[in-house]
Design goal:
Layout (H helix, E strand, L loop, with lengths): L2 H14 L7 E7 L10 H16 L3 E8 L3 E8 L5 H14 L13 E5 L5 H14 L12 E3 L6 H9 L4 H6 L9
Antiparallel strand pairs: 1-3, 1-4, 2-3, 2-5
Length: 183
């Protein structure tokens, strides 16, 4: 892909990006060259602090965020007047600046999907939650430390997981990308 085609593609994505107050969004952002740096305690702490800041300033309510080594999944409700792009740009900045000893950057842009009323927020959250298990980064009886759900509004699967103490194998078999085309 030539440089001008790349920028045209990014420009088209931005034109289609709509920030609707009180809408729910699923966002994925990826590190440049898929550098595996996000599973770092200082990044997780900076992320958590920023998300609390967003909540207290009534800009966005985070439902969950999953940090993987080279990407993140963030589900939130846009509650203020900021755009999705502004929120993600600041999140990326906070995360990058929390690791002064690591040399890494984000890929330009990010993927976003407005979760419609006909779609299940729970399925997007479960997909995100199961990501480290599907990628076999940890075993089903191990807790992934880079997941943060909303303690005020836990998902049904979180309650089941907390009772069981492990991820049932059926979840891994049944869980599919909620945006994947239906065969």
């Amino acid at each position: 892909m030539t440089s001008s085609n790349h920028w045209n593609q990014i420009s088209r994505l931005r034109k289609k990006r709509i920030s609707l107050k009180n809408a729910h969004y699923f966002v994925t952002a990826v590190t440049k060259d898929r550098k595996p740096v996000l599973t770092n305690p200082s990044i997780f702490i900076a992320t958590s602090e920023y998300l609390h800041e967003l909540s207290h300033s009534n800009k966005a309510e985070t439902l969950c965020i999953q940090l993987m080594p080279d990407h993140l999944h963030w589900i939130f409700k846009l509650t203020g007047d900021s755009s999705i792009s502004q929120l993600v740009r600041m999140l990326k900045f906070k995360m990058t600046s929390s690791t002064e000893n690591l040399d890494w950057w984000w890929q330009q842009n990010f993927y976003d999907h407005r979760i419609r009323e006909t779609e299940s927020i729970e399925s997007f959250a479960l997909y995100s939650f199961l990501n480290p298990y599907r990628k076999q980064l940890i075993q089903p009886n191990t807790e992934w430390p880079y997941w943060m759900g909303n303690s005020y509004h836990p998902f049904q699967f979180e309650s089941a997981y907390n009772q069981l103490g492990y991820v049932p194998i059926e979840w891994l078999r049944q869980s599919k990308d909620p945006l994947a085309p239906i065969p």
